[in-house]
UniProtKB/TrEMBL annotation, chain A:
Belongs to the binding-protein-dependent transport system permease family. It holds the Pfam family BPD_transp_1. It comes from Jiangella anatolica. The lineage of its organism: Bacteria, Bacillati, Actinomycetota, Actinomycetes, Jiangellales. The chain crosses the membrane at residues 12-35, 72-93, 105-127, 139-157, 178-200, 237-258. It is a multi-pass membrane protein. GO terms for biological process: transmembrane transport. This is Carbohydrate ABC transporter permease. Residues 68-258 form the ABC transmembrane type-1 domain. Keywords: Cell membrane, Membrane, Transmembrane, Transmembrane helix, Transport.
TrEMBL record, chain B:
Its main location: membrane. Belongs to the binding-protein-dependent transport system permease family. It is found in: Cell membrane. Gene3D superfamilies: MetI-like. This is ABC transporter permease. It is a multi-pass membrane protein. The keyword Membrane applies. It comes from Jiangella anatolica.
Amino acid sequence: MTARVVTRQVLTHLALAVGGVVMLAPFAIMLWTAFVPERLVFGGAGLGDLTLENFRIAVRESDWLRAYRSSVIVAAVTFASQLLTCLPAGYVLARHRFRGRSLALGVMFGCLIVPGMVIAIPSYVMISRVGLLDTIAALVWPGLTSAFGIFLFRQFILTLPQSIFDAARMDRVGEFGMVWRVVLPNVKPAIAAFGIFSVVSSWNDLFWASVVLQSSANATVPFAITQFADQEAGVRYGAQMAAATLAVAPLIVAFLLAQRQFVRGINLNVAD
Amino acid sequence: MTLRIRQPRAGLLLVPAYVLLALTVVAPVLVVIVLSLFDYDPLLGTADFVALDNFGRVLSSDEFGRALVNTAIYLILTVPVTLTASMLVALGIHSLSWGGTLWRNVYFLPVASTLAAMAVAWRWLFYGGSGVVDATVGRVLGVEDWLHSTTLALPAVAVVGTWENVGFAVVMFLAGLSAVPPQLLEAARLDGAGAWSRFWHVTWPALGPAVVFTLIITTRNALKVFDQVRVMTEGGPVNSSTTLSYLLWERGIRFLDVGGGSVITLVLLALILGVTAIQLGTVGLRWERAGTR
């Protein structure tokens, strides 16, 4: 490498570092404030002052274990239901010709371009009529299936060679077995990417939770942190940052453990 | 509806997904149109047909006009900055011989984190007077206490939206850049084309689809902005940071004005579909033509 190339590489690293500081500063300041005693959050704290007191307050004032549990249940039920419904539908749309196929594809594309916010008020009315507001059932309802999931699996199944389906048919594998014993093992990368996309979307969702939740009984993580921040507005910034740290920690840890898969999965984000 | 399929059982495999799509997407979209024509009280369960009264009431209100303008400002503050910054970052990362993945992950970290929680952290950064923003950028620009200012609350929310979306666009552009044929760049270089010329005539046209796609998604995200508005400003002070998506929730859910909220929903739906169609029809088509020149 010539000296000019090296210089340019170093300058590029420096420029990216400047932007990187802006990207990471909110995390750094959140963490620092979370570990600093309340009286020193406005400055003057040294390494010797660090304390867990803010986390004690955050845990005492809000039930984080329950929030994690709600979020895990919602994310798990949502993903399981999406997989169970989208994979068979994606398979049929990719591998069968039937009357009504173009209608079915049209409905799928139509649902794909409708943003999730549009269904909020009518779904709120329907859920309140059946008396299910403020429940886990209400939280999972709009995500039970996914037009995007059907689309993604269909695209992936279209690229599989016809021979594996022919071979299975010779072995008298039925349609049901075709989905779960032939398609499933062949679309694992798509399932992994869609799984991360699905779990991250439902884990981070504040909007729908704000529509159907009314108390902290089934609060998900984003809803719990918002409630906590509302109560503590203007006071106890240390405790707020400790709570925010507890709220972001699970996904950040997951991201650091599986960076490549996360980047692929989240960037599927073509629909809500 | 009867589906004729070679294997009779295959049609059954479509049923769960499509029944759920009908109940969770198709029916609500139709119901929201009906609700916009009624004065519906969710507590009493009463509904009176009021024809277009909800539309007249909401569309002429100051609050709605303000939200429409704020949404446009938010769009202008976030989308161009996000795309430009991400393009520069992606070009930088792409040109590195090592360490690119580290930088990609740094810029992607906000995308992977829970926005509601990070908005709480940002509210602290924007704390008036002694917060980090006022102590640094605020000193330079001579402004302070963004979240309690009617002119700066919306820009503050836009800063967070941009911070959150850059990483997504960077990854999209990196994927686009890796698809640019290297032999074309090499040929251009041998022909004596400078760095800018190579970018403009080779890289940029090849990036077309990635740019159009990212433009559409970031625009949609901007039109749907909710979390940071809810956490940082609650639309205030005096509606100065209320966007359409936030107003939808505040009117329709918090104040239980179902008819009014339904009208806002329809406006937002029309806006999102309209803007996407316009972007596809203008930028998208131009690129298709450019690709064949």
